[in-house]
Amino acid sequence: MGKTTVISICLVVLLIAVAFKGFIDKRQTVDEYSGFVISEATIEDIQEAFDRNHLTSRKLVDFYLNRIQALNPTLGAVLEVNPDARDQADKADSERKQHRDRSLLHGIPVLLKDSIATLDKLNTTAGSYALLGSKVPRDAHVVSKLRDAGAIILGKTSLPVWYGFRSYKTIGQAWCPRGGIALNPYVESKSPCASSFGSAISVATNMVAVSLGTETDGSIICPADHNSVVGIKPTVGLTSRDGVIPISPRQDTIGPICRTVSDAVHMLDVIVGFDLRDYEATKSAEKFIPSGGYKQFLNKQGLKGKIIGVLRNPFLDRSNVTSIFEDQLNVLRERGATVVDNLEVENLSTILDPFQSGEVTILLSEFKLSINKYLQELTYSPVRSLAEIIEFNTNNPILEKTTEYGQDLFIASEMTSGIETSEIIEALKVMDELSKNGFERVIKENQLDALLAIGTDVSPMFAIGGYPAITVPAGKPPPHFSFT
């Protein structure tokens, strides 16, 4: 069963996240305009406030910029704000007065992960000084679609340097040279996770209502989980990767990180679709985009008649929130879903180990080819190849903290010889078999609409197969709960 077939029978892999009560409530800014409170407002709430003249895009942008100024020095979520954001807001307000609003995202500020290109005054650097000042040839395709919808590009969010793919020490680290260390806004001692942590933190703390992240393996769903927000990892090919700093053409995808499922769906509706510059990936996925968009499925009765599989082992064994998990299963049943419990995925331990599955081996080869191609297409760049990035890091050990964090993955990637070697061909074959005999078989044999697990350790399963996933908050744990 191919990837495109899976799209038609499996809507999502559903991941249960756990919310924390933290310090974000301690730093409030005035956010009430004509009785409308911006904090926690959804896209639809904001649009209603626009319609009633209780709010303008300019006031909304000002509020978010003030929040960023107040919170970001502590949290480290945002790398830079768009100096043209207020002008874009004024334009949106003017268009609204002329009844020229274009979509639900019209006049809504959006923060973008600092690997998504914008042809404006913002940088696109993957958190590294090596790309500071580089010039992109155009907006990323997803950014063009956001602009066409009337969205305001508010700024760029932080991420682990080069997605954490620079070295084994940077994997999962909430740090980059340009932004420093980022903090989890709910539990200061806990990780905000990687690599779209800046987008997740900014949404969780009302620095913005909606944001975009990217994922190769866990980079949307993990920070969404750790920061108690909603993240959608679309099927690979559903959103174009053109203009996005790459790791892997097989696994990279761009998706929304928001506070609610409805906001994430509204964002997804805007950014999906065919792109000639990402032809191979987007041509097959386009036919699965429903006419009328995904918002038509935002139905409170939508679970009725659905079959939800539950993958407990080994994820629930590692968790201290069994009672919360059981409560959520009961909610699914109460809403009319059939729960198929205690499912097993063949060779799951191998799938979850990126070394055993071959994922790391393939990513190292793909990254060198992909990043070299991206760099060569830039209008201007201080570096034009992975080899030159390695040299930059070597020559700037203080700026890039090369001594502390290293760049062993970069060096290993530079030593690869493409994706046509016998080793890579065999590794790709193994991963394809793992996916078909694992996730796809479970979905097909049990006729599932979705597969549910707790946490995000399951992410390699749908990363290597290009499958979609969504993570949603599921409740608050008892005091002193330790998230792992």
UniProtKB/TrEMBL annotation:
Q: Which InterPro entries match?
A: Amidase_dom, AS_sf
Keyword Ribonucleoprotein listed? The answer is no
Q: Give start-end of the signal peptide.
A: 1-19
Q: Which domain of life is it from?
A: Eukaryota
For the keyword Nucleus, the answer is: no
Keywords per UniProt: Signal
Pfam (any one): Amidase
In this chain the Amidase domain maps to 60-404
| Matching PANTHER family | AMIDASE, AMIDASE C869.01
Q: What is this protein called?
A: Amidase domain-containing protein
Q: Which organism is it from?
A: Vicia faba (Broad bean)
